[in-house]
Design a protein that fits this description.
The structure holds 2 protein chains of 2 kinds. By secondary structure, chain A is of the alpha/beta class. Chain A has 6 helices and 7 strands. In chain B, the strands form 3 sheets. In chain B, strands 2, 5, 10, 12 and 13 form a 5-stranded mixed beta sheet that branches. Chain B has a 4-stranded antiparallel beta sheet with strand order 1-3-9-6, with no helix packed on it. Chain B has a 4-stranded antiparallel beta sheet with strand order 7-8-4-11, with no helix packed on it. The chains are: A alpha/beta, B mainly beta.
């Protein structure tokens, strides 16, 4: 009797260990991606890697879309935002100014709106913010490609080859955004990082 | 035979504990936590004040029930009670006007820390004595000092016991539940 209780105890401990190792030592990722990805991938494409390509519908574009890869040769900022996001509202006028300033040098900002309060609301909002760059309608699929986009704003700075030179979660100072833009354009100091998070 | 029985009982207990303790049962991105209520006992024909307490994780804030700007998503607690119960007179705390580092010149009406939403639970005219579970959800949208996060729906549920009070209900209907809300 004593032996059988001991055996049961041993089996239970063994199964517990197996289940815990499976449940708690694995690192499931948000979204649809597979397991065994490094934390870097969880935050989206890493610096120095090619930004995932996408084609997204243009806001008020009557079905027209923009493909990221069609912008090769330009420095691109991919800026995820939402109308409910106050920090996004702070940086949008800055981005509009920077588009104006660096557009002639080859900068193209793309705003990707991640909420859906209706097209009119988004258009009114972008007009109020003075947005002068294309706004694309975000999808979960594209958000997944860029690491899930849990926090907003999230911004990726791409160089003329389409490689990520900086990525920033949250609002950061306008001067740091400008520094990242210069890196994207190839006119800034590539060794100084704009408060990478 | 006895040891086999013991074995299966131990396995069942183990699986239950793992299921309860599993991180998959908890939304890792939740910024607000509901403080569970004890069973609310309402005598038939009467009403009982109830306070729903929520804890907002340190470093985060959510918009109040009446945000200062139309684009901002208000915090809202909604219930789908069973027909025997009515939840009324929902009262939200006033938001605290706060400015944040991302925009020091603008004050937003927000909640942070603990928030208490008050309401009254009362029996419906045709209620019957019994035990009920009320399901609901808290809709909120959280931000920290430089980022905002997508709106979330936090499931909220509590148990109500309708006791025989001023008038007697016909028959008990144990464990009646309000419709589940699926996200």
């Amino acid at each position: 009797m004593k032996r059988s209780v001991l055996f049961v105890f041993f089996v239970v401990v063994a199964i517990t260990a197996l289940l815990f190792s499976g449940k708690f030592l694995s690192h499931p990722r948000n979204g649809s991606a597979s397991a065994n990805v490094s934390p870097q991938h969880e935050l989206g494409p890493a610096r120095g890697t090619a930004a995932p390509d996408f084609a997204l519908q243009l806001l008020q574009g009557k079905g027209k879309s923009i493909q990221l890869s069609s912008l090769k040769g330009k420095a691109v900022i991919v800026n995820f935002w939402a109308t409910y996001c106050d920090p996004c509202k702070v940086e949008m006028p800055w981005l509009a100014e920077l588009q104006k300033k660096y557009g002639p040098q080859g900068l193209q900002i793309l705003g990707i709106v991640m909420d859906d309060p209706g097209e009119k609301t988004i258009v009114d909002f972008t007009n109020k913010m003075g947005v002068n760059y294309p706004v694309l309608v975000g999808t979960d699929k594209v958000a997944d490609l860029y690491g899930g986009i849990e926090g907003l704003p999230t911004t990726f700075f791409l160089d003329r080859e389409g490689k990520v030179v900086d990525r920033v979660l949250g609002l950061e100072d306008e001067s740091l955004i400008e520094a990242s833009i210069k890196k994207s354009l190839g006119t800034g100091d590539s060794s100084s990082s704009a408060s990478a998070k | 035979m006895k040891s086999l029985h013991l074995f299966f009982r131990a396995i069942a207990l183990l699986l239950f504990v793992l299921g309860v303790a599993s991180p998959q049962g908890v939304d890792a991105n939740a910024r607000v936590i509901f403080d569970p209520l004890n069973t609310v006992t309402v005598p038939m024909g009467q009403s009982i004040p109830v306070t729903f307490t929520f804890h907002i994780k340190p470093g985060f804030h959510v918009n109040s029930h009446q945000p200062t700007e139309p684009e901002l998503i208000p915090t809202e607690l909604k219930f789908s009670p069973p027909e025997d119960l009515v939840i009324a007179k929902m009262r939200y705390p006033a938001g605290v006007l706060t400015s944040f580092p991302f925009d020091p010149n603008t004050k937003l009406s927000v909640y942070s820390g603990d928030i208490a939403v008050k309401a009254v639970v009362m029996t419906a005219p045709k209620a019957t004595v019994g035990n009920y579970t009320v399901h609901g959800e808290l809709k909120y949208q959280a931000c920290d000092n430089n980022s905002c996060y997508p709106p979330k729906r936090l499931p909220v549920q509590f148990d109500v016991k309708i006791g025989s009070g001023v008038r007697k209900g016909p028959t008990a209907r144990p464990n009646a539940q309000s419709p589940h809300i699926h996200n």
